[in-house]
Amino acid sequence: MPIPSRYVQLASARLRHGDRVDRFGALFSESDPLADAVASELASWPRARREALLDHCLSRGLEAVPDAPASVRALFAELDNVPLWVDFQRIERGCAVFFRSGLLGGLVLGAYSLVAGYCSPAGNKPLAFSGRLAEDAPRRLAETSRFVEAVSSRGGMRRFSAGFACTVKVRLVHASVRRMLHESPKWRHDAWGAPINQVDMAGTILLFSHVLLEGLGKLGFYTTLAEREDVLHLWRYVAYVIGVVDELRVTSEAEALALWDLLASTQAPPDEDSRALATALLESPLRSARTPAARAQAERMRPVGYSLSRFLLGDDVADRLGYPRTAWTRALPIFAVVNRSALRTLRFVPGVSELFVDRGRRYWQAVVEQSLGGLPATYPMPDALSGVVRS
């Protein structure tokens, strides 16, 4: 298939990345055949039967579901194979680094990682078509928080653990959305490539790993190269389980830097959907406020959220997203310097790092429990799309 028109500024990209630019472009037409086959085969099933089948496969294994369809058996045959390169000790260390970031990690995820994903004017189209963020931002953000928390928990990516199950379910949500978008006359293959293609899936993995680490660094959170690469190793395995092809699963910080530069430097500026999605995310505390006091608190914190996102994204992107300018932006560089100095010092105090990890776990558990309101995050395969694309 021809390279979609979303892939831009190729001449300047070739100066840094050579002919990798051309090979990368072919991946805009690649999706996830194993998951796509499951989505196609189960599309006509009632939702309850479909979800029960998948829950049984995830919780009991294929041997407990002898009548599973061929497509499901093929997918789980791959999922049940743990590649030799997977090192669960490194994964656990990567999880600890994430939890050590605590509240900072949550702030960076919302104000930087997710918004950076919305800035792709083609990559954001499946989300815009789904209508989920604009219609129910707090719920979708709660489900994203649960996904990140589950993946990063102790043993979360083991075969029968919650993080593994969440990842597989998100993979099948992607496949269901992709199936419907392929069938929609509104999907512009020539401009956007395949819906939720390999480039966009790999980009999402980088948002939760490389971009998150970059944002934490901007706020003064100190990590060693080994720690950052342990986080990347965790998300390399998540990428495997969620269906990203081998050549896009980074193995080092240098590879992550190069892949992110290639991806970010060849996309167009943010569009109207980017602005709508970013606004919905940053305004979500106002939408979810249930009392006058909570709403007043959300109103007071609103400029802080925009300022933090502006600081992390940079003025050019923030202006394109229509962010307001506030006095808080000037305070954040000072906070980052002070925070960096304090955290580097505390790092060498015996027991402090472990204390931060424990507090971080409890923080994320509380965030998930509060944001989900006691309801489980189930990630069902959708049957319809309801969004409106603005540009």
Question: What features would you highlight for this structure?
Answer:
391 residues, 2 domains
What is the topological layout?
Blueprint: H1 10-17, H2 20-25, H3 33-42, H4 47-60, H5 70-79, H6 88-118, H7 125-130, H8 132-152, H9 162-183, H10 189-192, H11 198-218, H12 225-242, H13 253-265, H14 272-282, H15 284-288, H16 292-313, H17 315-320, H18 328-346, H19 352-372
Helix pairs in contact: 3-5, 3-9, 6-11, 6-12, 6-14, 6-16, 6-19, 8-9, 8-14, 8-19, 11-12, 11-13, 16-18
Detailed description of the structure:
By secondary structure, the chain is mostly helical. The longest helix has about 30 residues, at about 90-120. It is globular. It has helices at about 10-15, 20-25, 35-40, 45-60, 70-80, 90-120, 125-130, 130-150, 160-185, 190, 200-220, 225-240, 255-265, 270-280, 285-290, 290-315, 315-320, 330-345, 350-370. The protein folds into two domains: about 30-80, no CATH class; about 85-290 and about 295-370, no CATH class. It has 19 helices and no strands. The model has no long low-confidence stretch (mean pLDDT about 95).
Summarize the structure.
With 391 residues, the chain is mostly helical. The chain has helices at residues 10-17, 20-25, 33-42, 47-60, 70-79, 88-118, 125-130, 132-152, 162-183, 189-192, 198-218, 225-242, 253-265, 272-282, 284-288, 292-313, 315-320, 328-346, 352-372.
The secondary-structure class comes to mainly alpha
Helical content class: 55-70%
Question: End-to-end span in angstroms?
Answer: 23 Å
What is the general shape? Answer: globular
Order of helices and strands: HHHHHHHHHHHHHHHHHHH
Q: Please report which band the strand proportion falls in: under 5%, 5-15%, 15-25%, 25-35%, 35-45% or over 45%.
A: under 5%
Radius of gyration: 21 Å
Number of domains: 2
- Uncertain residue segments: none
Query: pLDDT average, as an integer?
Result: 93
Largest sheet: none
Total beta strands = 0
Tally of contiguous helical segments: 19
